[in-house]
Structures are given as C-alpha cells and as structure tokens.
C-alpha cells in the first residue's frame, strides 16, 4: 500500500492556505487510499524566534484542527514529531550526506534568514538545517508520496536527492518519495498582497483567512480582498493575481475550475460575494468539529499518544537500518 507522510508546522494559526493546499486532500483522499501519517512538526517551530508556551498551545491546536478537518485515527496516524525520537536521530545521519551549499540554496531559508536579519535577530543554525529534518520526517517512514502545497516542492526535491545519495553511498536504505499537489489552490495567496503566499507565520493581517475565523470575519476579509485594476473577470495569474486568487479559492471550495468560473462572473463584487460564502461553508464543519474536540481534550491527547506509538514502530526499522548502513555500531 502506498505510504503517505505530511506535516504541518505550529508557528501560527492555521490558514485557508494550509487547508486548501494540504489538509483537505489529506482528509478527503489520502487517508482513504493509503497508509498515511500526518504530523504536527513541532521541532520545526523552534527554528525561528519562538515563545515556548505559544508553540505548545499551537501544537495542541494544530493537532485538534487536523482531527477537526476530518482525519480519522482509525484510518491514519496522527502524531507530534517530538514524541518520536527517530526524526532527530535520522536528521543527524542525513546531515552527514547533505552539503552546506545545498542548504543555502533553499528559497525558504533565504527568505526566512533575510526576515530574521531585518528584524535585527540572528539566524539559528536549525533554520539552515531545517530541510534535512524535513527529509528525515519523510524518509523515516519509507514514504512514497508527500502531499503538500507548492511552496514545499523544493524541500521534497532535496529529500529525494538525499535519499538517492545515501542509497548510492551506503546501500539501498530509503524509498525515494515524490511530492503531490492539489489540482487547484496549491498556492493560495494573501488577499491583500496577491503576489505573496498566504502564510500563517506572517503578521496577523486582513489578507489571511484563519480556519477559526468567525464567518463574518471571513466575509469581511474576502470582500476587502485587493483586486486588479481591470474590470473584467479573467483568470490570469501573472497579469491579474488578485482576481486569479479569488477564482482559485472559489474553484477549490466549490469544485469547479478557475477558467470556467471566470466566464460566469461579470463583476468583482459578485465574485467576492460567492467566494466569501463558499469559504464560510467549507470552514463551517471544521470550526464546529474543532469546538466539539476542544470540549474533550483527553480524546485528542489519547489520539496523539497512540499515534506516536504507532509512528515509532514504523520509523524504527528504517532508522536502525540507516544507522547500521552509515557505519555506526549497533547497540548490543
Ligand atoms: P507549513 O506548516 O508551512 O504548511 C503546511 C502545509 O500547508 C501548505 N500550505 C499552503 N498551500 C497552499 N497555499 C498556501 N498559502 C499554503 N501555505 C501552506 C504547505 O505547502 C504544507 O503542505 N516544511 C513544512 C512542514 C513539514 C513537512 C515535513 C511537510 C515538515 N516536515 C514533511 C511534509 C513532509 C511546512 O513548513 O509546512
């Protein structure tokens, strides 16, 4: 059976981008057709300036939202990265096949390092090695497919390179995984700055729709989305990024396709109104289920405990094999 692995980082409140670009496919498709693991990757949240209590809170919230979005612990494994030591163990072994140059070429590293420096902070070494830990997350489980938004494509490419290099040098150990992306909304853009991704770690802003926003807040944010100077509704990501973003969001929420939807609308106003309602409807069951789950924190804790146990059992044989293959003496 196909092994699927994906993760979400607790660095901010989860957004419509996380949902349409990744979580929705995990719940609707991946967990039903594959042997899937979904992980709150909390170690990754320590790579930039962080508040420990906030990371803990956001980790719990992300896990709750994964379940609220429809992940079923009977069908898939939901767990927290730091509960499974194999991730950090394998990450070090992969650091011994990765190079400094390939880390520095990662687009997200360059962007995030520049942001930290602009804020007057220093860049943590873990920010540089972040993609190696991500590769360890994926490779530890013999993963075939990694369902992610567009922004993670380069990291999954690097994971493939590291797997191939390790296998060539030390003997076949890892499955070489591939990224999969949703048909539409693989990159949801910020409603106020449609040239930038809608990112949860960005400052709170009117351009970001959070999964837990109240319906009226969602409506307000979508109705105030920046559109382009033209008047006609056309789907053109380069020339009309604002309108293209709304068409993609509407297509992702309503099941249509953005080109066909562009022909249906004559004004930006009606496009925004329908997009706002479609987003409210898509998020409604997630918010409701989240509320229910918050009333039963013991249930979420139990899911995470069992998930970590299952994940450990799945990761250990591969990580042990990598340990031996690279030249380390097995513990007696
Ligand atoms: P993260 O936490 O930034 O995002 C989680 C998932 O949401 C997708 N996503 C988006 N998709 C479309 N439009 C957007 N605006 C948008 N914003 C986020 C991301 O592509 C991702 O699929 N490095 C990863 C976490 C990670 C991981 C892994 C993923 C760590 N280890 C192993 C897969 C496998 C990250 O920061 O995702």
TrEMBL record:
Reaction equation(s) it catalyzes: tRNA(Trp) + L-tryptophan + ATP = L-tryptophyl-tRNA(Trp) + AMP + diphosphate + H(+)
Class in the EC hierarchy, top level: ligase
Compartments, record wording: Cytoplasm
Binding annotation for L-tryptophan: 137
Keywords: Aminoacyl-tRNA synthetase, ATP-binding, Cytoplasm, Ligase, Nucleotide-binding, Protein biosynthesis
Ranges spanned by the short sequence motif 'HIGH' region, renumbered to the chain: 10-18
Protein EC: 6.1.1.2
Subunit relationships: Homodimer.
Classification via NCBIfam families: trpS (TIGR00233)
Protein function: Catalyzes the attachment of tryptophan to tRNA(Trp).
Protein name, per record: Tryptophan--tRNA ligase
Organism for this UniProt entry: Streptomyces cathayae
């Amino acid at each position: 059976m196909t092994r699927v692995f994906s993760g979400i980082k607790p660095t901010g409140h989860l957004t419509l981008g996380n949902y349409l670009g990744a979580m929705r496919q995990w719940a609707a498709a991946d967990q039903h057709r594959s042997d899937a693991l979904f992980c709150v990757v909390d170690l990754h949240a320590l790579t930039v300036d962080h508040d420990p209590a906030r990371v803990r809170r956001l980790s719990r919230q992300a896990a709750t939202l994964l379940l609220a979005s429809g992940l079923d612990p009977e069908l898939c494994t939901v767990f927290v990265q730091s509960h499974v030591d194999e991730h950090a163990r394998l990450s070090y072994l992969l650091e011994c096949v990765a190079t400094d140059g390939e880390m520095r070429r990662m687009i997200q590293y360059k962007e995030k390092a520049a942001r930290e420096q602009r804020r007057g902070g220093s860049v943590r070494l873990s920010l540089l090695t972040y993609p190696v830990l991500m590769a360890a997350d994926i490779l530890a489980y013999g993963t075939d497919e990694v369902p992610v938004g567009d922004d993670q494509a380069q990291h999954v490419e690097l994971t493939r390179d590291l797997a191939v290099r390790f296998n060539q040098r030390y003997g076949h150990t890892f499955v070489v995984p591939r990224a999969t992306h949703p048909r539409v909304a693989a990159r949801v853009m910020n409603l106020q700055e449609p040239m930038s991704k809608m990112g949860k770690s960005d400052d709170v802003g009117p351009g970001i729709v959070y999964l837990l926003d109240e319906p009226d807040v969602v409506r307000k944010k979508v109705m105030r989305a920046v559109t382009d100077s033209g008047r006609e509704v056309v789907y053109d990501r380069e020339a009309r990024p604002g309108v293209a973003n709304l068409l993609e969001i509407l297509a992702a929420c309503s099941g249509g396709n953005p080109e066909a939807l562009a022909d249906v609308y004559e004004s930006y106003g009606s496009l925004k109104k329908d997009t706002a309602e479609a987003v409210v409807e898509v998020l409604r069951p997630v918010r409701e289920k989240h509320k229910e789950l918050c009333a039963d924190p013991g249930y979420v804790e139990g899911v995470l405990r069992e998930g970590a146990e299952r994940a450990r059992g799945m990761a250990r044989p591969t990580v042990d094999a990598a340990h031996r293959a690279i030249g380390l003496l097995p513990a007696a």
